[in-house]
Amino acid sequence: MKNASDDIKKLEQKISELQQGEEALTKKEKRQTEFARASRIGLRISVELISAVIVGAGIGYLLDNAFGCKPWMLVLFLFFGGAAGILNVYRLSKNEDELNKL
Question: Which of helix, strand or coil describes residue 32?
Fold first, then answer.
C-alpha cells in the first residue's frame, strides 16, 4: 500500500507542474494585445500578396526574355501570382479561424 500512496503523490506533483506550465503559457498569450495580433496578421497578409505578385512578375519577365513574346508571359504570370497570393491569404485566414475556435 505504501507504493500506491507514493505513486499518487508523484502523480499529483506532476499534475501540479503541468498546471503551472499551462498557466505560464496562458499568461504569455494574454500579454499579446488584440492590436498586436491584428497588426501581425495584417503584415503577414500584405507580405503574402506582394511577394506572390512579385515572384509571378519575375517568372513572367524571365519567360518573356527567353521566348521573345513580350508582354504576354508577364501579364499571364502576374495573374498567376495574384491568384497564388489570394490562395495563401485564404489558407492563412482559414488557419486563424481554426486557431480561434480552440
Answer: coil
- pLDDT above 90 (res 25): no
Q: Which residue has the cell 500506491?
A: 4
How many Å apart are CA 102 and CA 98, to the nearest integer? 7
Say how far apart CA 77 and CA 69 lie, in whole Å: 13
Report how far apart, in Å, the C-alpha atoms of 71 and of each of 49, 66, 91, 95, 99 are.
22, 12, 30, 36, 42
DSSP for 47-94, written as a single string: HHHHHHHHHHHHHHHHHHHHHT-TTHHHHHHHHHHHHHHHHHHHHHHH
pTM: 0.65
